[in-house]
TrEMBL record:
It is found in: Endoplasmic reticulum membrane. It is a multi-pass membrane protein. This is ER lumen protein-retaining receptor. It comes from Punica granatum (Pomegranate). It comes from the Eukaryota. GO terms for molecular function: ER retention sequence binding. Belongs to the ERD2 family.
Amino acid sequence: MNLFRLAGDMTHLLSIVVLLLKIRTTKSCTGISLKTQELYVIVFLTRYLDLFTRYLSFYNSAMKVFFLGTSMAIVWYMRYHKVVKQTYNKDEDTFRHYFLVLASFVLAILIPRAFTMTEILWTASIYLEAVAILPQLVLLQRSSNIDNLTGTYVFLLGAYRALYLVNWIYRFFTELHKVRWIPWVSGLLQTALYADFFYYYIKSWKNHEKLKLPA
């Protein structure tokens, strides 16, 4: 564990806390993509299959349980909570996310870390996480009014991935001395997808304006 990895984990955790705070306090999921949240459930389910078979540390297990539990809770709120589900932007959240799932699993079979079921599923989760934010970004482009909590949630998610890239570079020079192509390339792609959002988020914050993405 190094400072960049810890900062990335805490930023990721904070992004989920911000999203849950928005949903629970406002009883609204306006501006949040259910498609993206469902993709994250698949990401965590396929990545954390070793949760009950391989113990690394209390911290590791606790973070896995947190992300699994909160991702499922968010989807439950958006699908089944009698008040929250009425605020879901179904007509605008139309990204066909199942294509992302299919493409990620096909790519994981063709380019896995190792040819075992567990490793293929792990690899698929890495590929899928890289593009899971796409439905959310498309929804924000279609939304004329992006509230502060939603904008902050997406910004923190992007910051988490950027910090993980720094973590991998740090580990390359201090520990591993080898390139891990699958997470590195996927992480670069994922961070690049946030670049446009980062620009407009920081611009709106600097100018004290309402966040709005160009169509």
